Fold each of these.
Amino acid sequence: MTSRSASLMLCGVLVACVAPPREPVRPTEQRARWEAQVASADRRADEVMHSVAIGGAGGTGPATEAPLDSAGSDGVGLVNYVPSVRVGNIVALNAARRPFAEYLNRMHKRFHPLFADSFLFSLDHLPPSDPLNDQHLATELEIVLDEHSGRVARLGVTTPSGNDTFDAGVLQAVRRAAPFGAPPPEIVSPDGKVYVHWVFHRNEQTCSTFNARPFLLRPDPGSAVVERPVENVGTQK
């Protein structure tokens, strides 16, 4: 090896050693990527629903999509969503159980035609081998509504199904079904919001209220609390 070659190799090693680290992704750039992913999955869900003939399907429900208010959101609804409900900030339902059960039925009547009768019906026309026909798909959402009209204040995926298109279809159904009407005061948390976690299935469980878990939040989320199990109050199976 010539002295010139050795010098070039040494320079290359030095350059590699002193090269600055790759600049981390900025929060604004990361959010733009999240939003692009959400938009792409949302379009895919629309394509699935509109590329299949749905003649003869049951009522399609409300067609107007309620805008998603991102104020106070810690992430985009489809990915990296940070739930408002967490260990340490909930209290027992007590007298709110019955009003919650009635309101969950009202919500279910609004989005069942959009999710089960429209979105899931469209998936039935896809080939059996299509990933969207995996009967194990299930998506859990956190649904946060305002106290005045039942408008969606926050909405996000707390447990993804593993299929972005399915998750987007679930989000679409709930967003388009809103608003759900003014909730009874007993189920409104001190911050003026209604909190529900709801699991949507690809199989025969679909969007039954049996898979809904309502919550009441504490006035001060940071205060200590002894946790009690939160039971489902849904009536449908």
Note: Residues 3-217 form one domain.
Amino acid sequence: MEVTKKTRFQLRIQNITFVVLFLTGMSLLAWISNRYNLQMDWTATNRNTLSEASIALLQRIPGPVKVTAFATDSELVPVRKSIRELLARYQQHKDDLHLNFIDPNTEPDKTRAMEIRVDGELVIEYQGRTEHVQQLNEETLSNTLQRLLRGGSRSLTFLSGHGERAPSGRANHDLGSFFQELAKRGLKTTAQALSTKPEIPANSAALVIASPQVKYLDGEVKLIRDYVHKGGNLLWVMDPGDPSSLQDLAQDLGIALHAGTLVDPTTQLLGINDPSFAIVADYPNHPITRNFTYLTLFPRACALQRLEQDQKKSDWDVARFLTSAARSWSETGALAGSVEFDAGKDTMGPLSIGLALSREINRTDATATKQATDTKNEQRIVVLCDGDFFSNAYLGNQGNQKLAENIINWVGHDDTFIDIPIKAAPDKELVLSQTAGIIIAVIFLLLLPIALLAGGIRIWLKRRKQ
């Protein structure tokens, strides 16, 4: 191309136009980046993104949340960076979640007054209530927000004095391991003997009858029935041959207990030779078992049935959320030797292990619980025919703990309670055999440097000859 004054002028105009457009584009990108935020999580388990449960929780929290982080301001200890990164995920979904930092080294008086114990501890404040968080992860932080949203009024009342399973007991048949874990999430449990304190607390999320071993007195049965009639939530756990003398309560609910112990031949496939064990793998559609995919194991379970004559006139909505396998049956004979189904005495499966009852009621009595009042006056009752499945001895089997949590949450109207698994990276460790390690070391520490050196020498000699 011939270079003339005209072509020089055109090239100059093109260069100026390119520079102006380039600077304009960069300015627009800078302006857009300040107004909009786009993040993408490409990790294998999305461990840098809030779970759907946490996002739903944030959308349910009205009003501002204040988070004060007591963290050292030092580049050598990047505690503040970790806190900012975690809280930024929450602030994306809640604009009025405010984060403030305090350096314990420069404000020791305030640190002592707030009883701060570790560097990086968070103090979360919501509507005048505060809680401390020392573990920096999504599960702990979301459950803390959930407790603050509830106002700390979530509690269960356990009946005692009749050999019931204790919520804080350490014996194999007790429930201490399960409720100790739930206590970390704000659940409170109290044991009460109606014989010494004949009144069920009005602020209980639910009453729990956990496998009594002896009969209740007539006056105690009346108190329990009155509690249910007035709209109280109930978790009734029984075992084969239930001796509680609560037949009148069962009649009120329109249910009855099958005679015998549940026998499930399916357990032999898992190497369990005890005929009194049953497993459940398929679950009916119910909020307790929705999206529940774990096996659950039930030692010495019994079975429930609905009373046919009460189904039409009852105002209870009854749902089976736990059913045994089709091959199972309720064995009325001894569980010894060869156990076989007796068509004349036993009842063939599938049978109900757990029933969930609910109804809409008018709560005008002072004993109506606050949680139930906040959920459109729905009364909830769960009747469960096995107390061993979430006892200390069997809690760790398959999905027993998760199912027990779902039951407690549904009965207490805590359907959205957070249970967030820790998101671990599947590719954080690279495990090599000794041979593979030696091969990699030889290639990268010996052969590759020699090849690079030889190539450099070859190029140097070639250029020297030219």
Note: Residues 364-375 have pLDDT under 50 and may be disordered.
Amino acid sequence: MQTPADERQVELGDDEQEGAAEEAPPADIEERLFLHERPDALGAAAREYQDAQLEGLLHQREQMVVERRNEAIRLLEDFVAHEPEQAVEMPDALLRLAELR
């Protein structure tokens, strides 16, 4: 059975902090999707900018889904390989593994 890792914090130097804010994915993608103005009141340049931002966010979301799915499959395969067949959780684990594959 897996135990959770201890939480830890990593400090960045001044040079690294400037670039890290731009490179890190947003904590809450949905929050960035909220439009403060009505779409019909926006100019063409603003619409193009928002469309580009939305495309980038959708691409990030798709990558996160793939990564999380692969991690879930790996964890379930590990569980199935190491737990006895009679384990109470085994039917649910096998069903979830089949759905993910």
Note: Residues 28-100 form one domain.
Amino acid sequence: MIFTIFIAFISIIGLLVLHEFGHFIIAKKFGVRVDEFGIGYPPRLYGKKIGETLYSLNLLPFGAFVRIPGEIEKIEDERSFSSQSLWKRALIVAGGVLSFWIMAAVIFSIVFAFGTQVAVSDEEANLKDAKVQVLAINPGSPAKEAGLEPGDIIKQLTINPEKKSGISDGAGIQQLTINKVKEVQELTGEYKGQEMILTIQRGKDIFDVKLTPRVSPPKGEGPMGVTLARTALKSYSWYEAPWRGIRATVSMTGAIVQGYSQAINKMLSKQPSGVELVGPVGVFQLLTQASRLGVSNFLQFIGMLAIYMAIFNILPIPAVDGGKLLFLGIEAVRRKPVSEKTEQSITTFCFMLLLVLMVLVTIKDIIRIF
């Protein structure tokens, strides 16, 4: 567990470091002076100056930063950020956002090259490592009460048809190896109200759980109260994997944006949006769950997280990259920049709002988990 949390923490920090590297590399490309590239936040633990840039390791391990002169206030220096043309400044700011999408595409490409579990139909044959997995669990369902978790693999299902009548000598016990979703659906539908045993694989552990399918489940839920999928291992050639990675990144970005749009429309029409904000604690929990599904699923979650961070960072909110791009857009329209005082005041105010929101969401996550 501790090792999993450590890996999750390093993964998130890695995303943030590479995000700042996006700003750094484009600034360097344009000849802009970079005073410091830091991992973590001060106080500084270690620093080494290479050329004109100080590379530092800092005490507070919550991200990374790039210190570029002229980024916050105007400086009369031809190599400062503020002295660059509008399009160069926009690209330096956008570099951090683009780095998230590039990281996602690279991660998905690696996953596709080495193989990943993908959803397949019950009818497909000649599959490698086909299995039935739990994708989601309904609150208060028999599956939830039995302790099932997303990612669990249902390997076997054992039923004793005679046990319900109270007469059983064990001769009627049926034990079925599960390979298809419809096998679980048919059996739980046929033996509603009767206790059955599920052999579950969770990571490297294999164990049995007892579960009684509901006779009258709520509308939209099955007798067990789970969403199941049949998955199999598929891999692609080295030249096809990158295209698959790019396509997956574009497709997932579109799906996330569409999901946000639908949630906003529902909120405006005063309908339940179904969207739940998750803070750092919630992200760690999700990463921990993803790690139980194997390296491939863990990497896919990291790739998805990079896309979420890219979309959030490009939003026109002061205090994130999208806010800086918004001010640059206003400057392009007005043909003169927003005053430093106004920009800093708005940015500080929005940063404080985001900080308060993060604290509230983190408290909610802790209460939900514990």
Note: The radius of gyration is 26 Å.
